[in-house]
Amino acid sequence: MSATYDQLIALLTKLHEAPPGDITPDVTYAELDVDSLTLVEISMHVERELGVSIEDNELHPDLSLGATAKLIDERLAS
């Protein structure tokens, strides 16, 4: 995948203590039992560390990590 995807994995293992072996590009936040507070924290970290703003309605439990990385990469490219 991309460096952004790798950063998301690192962030999830830090904030949510998700086992890296459970994380794949197709897994959703809901499948990892990520709660809404953690989603807000992820959004804040992405904005602070990468300078990309993600709206609350864009980062939702049914979004996959691969789709999140793609969204961030598209914003970084524009």
TrEMBL record:
Signal peptide (from-to): none
Sequence ranges assigned to domain Carrier in this UniProt record: 1-76
UniProt protein name: Acyl carrier protein
Organism taxonomic ancestry: Bacteria, Bacillati, Actinomycetota, Actinomycetes, Kitasatosporales
